[in-house]
Write a structure and sequence with these properties.
This protein is mainly alpha-helical. The chain contains four helices and two strands. Helix 2 runs antiparallel to helix 3.
C-alpha cells in the first residue's frame, strides 16, 4: 500500500495540510527532491509553537519554490530557442558532412576506374615487352645486325612504355589507398560524431535528456 503524504497549500495566508496518495499529487511545478522540505511538509508534533515555526518556514519555502519554478519556466523558454537553433545548425553540418562523404565516394569510384585502366594498360605493356623479348630470342644466330638492332629497339621502347605504365598504376593505387584508408575514415568519423550530437540535441528537444531525468527539463518543444 502506498504511504500517504502531506500536501501543503497556502489558503488565505494559512498553511493547509491535505493527505493524498502519491500518485494523485500534481502541483504543476518541477518536482525536485528536497529532504528539508519533505521534513517540513510531513512535520508532526503536539507542540503548537514548533508547529507554528514549521508553518512559517514552510510558507517561506513555498514562496521560494514558486520563484524557482518561474525561473525554470523562463529558462525552458530560452533553452528551447537555443536548442532549436543548435539543432538546425547541427543538422546543416550533418548534411554537409554527408555530402562530403558522398563526394569522396564518387571520387573513390572514379579513382578506382582509373586505377583499373592503369592496371590493364600495365598488363598490356608487360605483354608487349615479353613479346618483344621473345622476338629477339627467336632470331637466328645468323640474323643480320640490323634486324637484331631493330628487335632490341622494340624491347627498349616496350620497356620504357611498361615502366611508365607501372608508374601510373602505382600512382593511382596510392591515391586510391590515400582516399580509402586516410581521408574516408576521417570524413566518416566526423559524420558519425555530428550524427551523435544531433541525436543528443533531438533527444533533449523531446525532453529525454539527462536533465529531464532529474525533473528539470520537461518536454521543451512540440512540432506540429
Amino acid at each position: 500500500m502506498a504511504t500517504q503524504t502531506n500536501v501543503i497549500r497556502v489558503e488565505h495566508g494559512q498553511i493547509v495540510r491535505v493527505s493524498q496518495e502519491p500518485e494523485k499529487q500534481n502541483g504543476g511545478s518541477v518536482d525536485l527532491v528536497d529532504p528539508r522540505e519533505s521534513f517540513l511538509t510531513n512535520f508532526q508534533c503536539e507542540d503548537t509553537a514548533l508547529i507554528a515555526r514549521c508553518d512559517s518556514l514552510l510558507a517561506k519555502r513555498l514562496q521560494q519554490n514558486a520563484a524557482i519554478d518561474t525561473l525554470i519556466r523562463d529558462w525552458r523558454v530560452v533553452r528551447r530557442t537555443e536548442l532549436f537553433e543548435l539543432h538546425e545548425k547541427t543538422k546543416a553540418e550533418c548534411r554537409a558532412a554527408q555530402k562530403a562523404v558522398a563526394d569522396l565516394q564518387d571520387e573513390l569510384q572514379n579513382v578506382e576506374r582509373l586505377s583499373n585502366r592503369a592496371t590493364a594498360a600495365e598488363g598490356e605493356a608487360h605483354a608487349a615487352l615479353n613479346s618483344a623479348r621473345l622476338a629477339l630470342e627467336r632470331l637466328s644466330r645468323f640474323a643480320p645486325a640490323a634486324e637484331i638492332a631493330k628487335c632490341q629497339a622494340a624491347i627498349d621502347e616496350a620497356a620504357t612504355r611498361h615502366e611508365k605504365c607501372q608508374q601510373k598504376k602505382a600512382s593511382w593505387m596510392a591515391e586510391h589507398n590515400r582516399l580509402a584508408l586516410s581521408e574516408f575514415p576521417k570524413l566518416q568519423a566526423n559524420l558519425n560524431a555530428l550524427s551523435d550530437r544531433e541525436q543528443d540535441i533531438a533527444a533533449e528537444l523531446r525532453g529525454e535528456s539527462r536533465a529531464s531525468a532529474l525533473g528539470i527539463v520537461g518536454t521543451v518543444m512540440t512540432r506540429g
